[in-house]
Amino acid sequence: MDIMSSERPINPRFDDDVHFNLVEPGPPRYQTHTDKPVRYITVADKQSGEVLGYVWANDEDDAAAWEPREAVGPRAFAEGSIWHARLEGAKNRGLRPSQALAELLANPEGNRGRVLPDSLTDAPSAAAVEALAKEK
Predict the structure, then answer these.
(1) What's the pTM value of the predicted model, to 2 decimals?
(2) What is the mean pLDDT of residues 99-119?
(3) What share of the chain is helix, strand, coil (3-state, %, to 5)?
(4) Which of 11, 33, 90, 93 is deepest in the core (most CB within 10 A)?
């Protein structure tokens, strides 16, 4: 019996063929960050007028997102679901982020919030809008 045999027993874990399951990507989405200038709109509560958050967009990086205002808390995060869904729908239809923003301005109603008329403005980056949302 040769102790130094070159044949080794096969580990049963590696005996079967390896199979990879391809995971289909989710729906197309805009990027959620950019360091480039963005345009944004302000969403306010329909009843109280309190600012709930901001929707920003940048075509160059194909980026757009909802930025909830932290001081409002859970209401701002809950309101975000409608704006995220509307951005996702725009991306699915092949709209550029600026076109999605224009569509939101044309149809400004959310669940509890509404886009403030004439609120479209510029910011140097998405981080600037995020900082605005963190202000008390």
Answers:
(1) 0.80
(2) 93
(3) 30, 20, 45
(4) 90
